[in-house]
Structures are given as C-alpha cells and as structure tokens.
Amino acid sequence: MTKCIVCSPKPLPRELWIKAAESAIAINPVNRPPVHRLTRVMPGFAPTKAHLSVLTTKYWGAKGVKLTVGFLDNPSADLRKKILAHMNAWSKTANVAFVASSVDPQVRIARTPGDGYWSYLGTDVLQIEKSQPTMNLDSFTLATPEAEYRRVVRHETGHTLGFPHEHMRKTLVAKIDEEKAIEYFRRTQGWSPEQTRLQVLTPLEEGSLIGTATADDHSIMCYQIPGEITKDGQPIPGGLDIDNWDYDFAARIYPSSKSGPKGGKKAGKKVTKKRGGGAKSPTRKSSGKKSKAKRKSR
Ligand SMILES: [Zn+2]
Fold it and tell me: Using an 8 Å Cβ cutoff, are 125 and 134 in contact?
C-alpha cells in the first residue's frame, strides 16, 4: 500500500487577501459576500475589509472558464496529456476547459516531492507569481495509479475552479481529534480554533445556519483529512471521483452555453431547478428553502 497523501488547501499569504477578494468580485460579482444577510442575522455586524475578504468566494465568471495550463518541471508529453485529461473531466457538465500552453500559463503545475497535494482556490491563482506553481501533484508520474489521478487531480482541479471543501458527515467528523485538528489547521492554514471548529469539526448536519441539510459523503471535494489528526491515525481520503452532485454543482456554477449540460439526464434535471439567484448564484450561506443547492456551503 502506498501512503495516502491528502489535500492541504493552499491559502494565499495574508497580505494578498484583500486584493484577491477585490479581484474575485471584479471577475464574478457572485463572489461578493452576502453582507446584507449577515447584518440581518447579526445586528450591528460591521465587517472590515479583512473580514469580507475571508468571506469572499473565488469562482470564475459564470460565462465559463478557459484556463491555460503549464508544467514547471518539464514532464513527458504523455504525462501532460494525462493530467490535462483528468482536469478536463469537469467539462462533462460544466463550461470549463483547461488548455495546455507554455506561454504564461495561468495554472502552473509542479510535482515537488514532499510538498503534498494542493491548489490555490479559483481566482486566487491569478495572485501567484508566474514563476511559482498554483498546484502541486507530489511525485505524480505515469506509474501513479489511475485511481489517484481521479482522486487527486480532479480534486485539486476542483479547487482551481473555486470549489471549496465539502463539510463532512457526523460519522467522519467523529474520527477527528479536535486538539490535533486545531493545531494542524493553525499551522497549515493560519486558522483560529473557531475557524477550524466551523470548517472541519462542525458536522454538516449541525451547521444548519450556514450549512445544508444534504451532505454528499462521496463528493470529490469532501475534506481529505491526514492521519495525523484522526483518532485512529488513518487518513480520510474523501471522495474518490467526481460524482453526480459534483457534476450538478459544477454545471450550476459554470453553465454550459449549449441547451443543457452534457452529463446525462440526472445532471440536467437538477441544474434546471433554480433557486435564489438561479444558475449563477451559488447562494452558499443563505438559509431556508430547498437545501440541495447549498451543499457546497462551508
Ligand atoms: Zn482539497
């Protein structure tokens, strides 16, 4: 058995947070945090720019995503092709395309050993210096199992598309050691204990104010948790491939310009079900009404 490496989301350096949030809102106004809703729930809530930058989402424009992809360590043509193919798996239902380019690529992939699996989130990749990677696929080669391409490349590409981690079910959260988790996310993400409690230690079922009633245990974006913070020392690998929920969500965020998503009957049906702002609005932190569209809340 090879060691299971899990994703550790890559935060921008703090000094870039406000600039990155402004850029995200300029690219897609849907990224603007729902302050009016927050002030309704918390009277007197007067957020600073720094607060707002944390609440800002990082989706690309609803008109579709076309990003150029380059590699920093000159892998073989076969390997490039394989990674690109897995990145483009998202285009089954969503209007997204990743295209190889050696000229100023927007997405830059490294395979640095020991650096783990990570990607910056959505429009944040634009804040990264051009000499630096925006995604790391630790030691990926053509010998890496196909299942790992599905689990890892598709998950990290989800982050590049702006998809955050899924909340987890109670049964998974119960496996996490709270103290170790707080220390781990402080070290890797700069999160306060409150943030870790909210993001990782609050089961979806209990986060109703900000979360959803419908969890997707098998989402490719389900949190991946390293063994060092679980009670039994075993990592939680998260979802193993893009599932129908993921495909539906991707199609809602990046609707295809064609008549409907290409992802089959099920996906098409759900995507047409509008709520709130419809296809262009992820409405991630709203309350009430139907919950399915809110499954990506965090
Ligand atoms: Zn991740």
Answer: yes
> Per-residue pLDDT tens for 234-266?
988 888 999 998 999 999 999 987 644 444 444
Ligand 1 center to 148 CA (angstroms):
14
Q: Say how far apart CA 51 and CA 61 lie, in whole Å.
A: 23
Q: Is 175 in contact with 229 (CB distance < 8 Å)?
A: no
| Helix or strand run (H / E) with residue 136 | strand 135-137
Domains and CATH numbers, the chain: 14-43+58-160 (3.40.390), 166-295 (no CATH)
Q: Which of 277, 278, 275 is nearest to 290 (CA)?
A: 275
CA–CA distance, 14 with 116 (Å, rounded to integer)? 21
Could you give the dihedral angle defined by the CA atoms of residues 212, 282, 18 and 96, in that order, rounded to the nearest 10 degrees? 130
The pLDDT confidence band at residue 288, using thresholds 50, 70 and 90, is very low
How many angstroms is it from 158 CA to the middle of ligand 1? 8
220 C-alpha to ligand 1 centroid (Å) = 9
**What are the DSSP calls for 62-126, one per residue?**
TT-EEEEEEESS---HHHHHHHHHHHGGGGGTSSEEEEE-SSS-SEEEE--TTS-EEE--GGGGG
- Tell how far the Cα of 26 is from the centroid of ligand 1, in angstroms: 25
Which residues pair with residue 166 across a beta bridge? 222
Contacts for 132 with CB less than 8 Å, ≥ 6 apart:
108
Residues with Cβ < 8 Å from 54, sequence gap 6 or more?
17
pTM score above 0.90: no
106 Cβ partners below 8 Å, 6+ apart? 67, 68, 69, 125, 126, 134
Q: Give 98-139 pLDDT, tens digit per residue.
A: 999 999 999 999 999 999 999 999 999 999 999 999 999 999
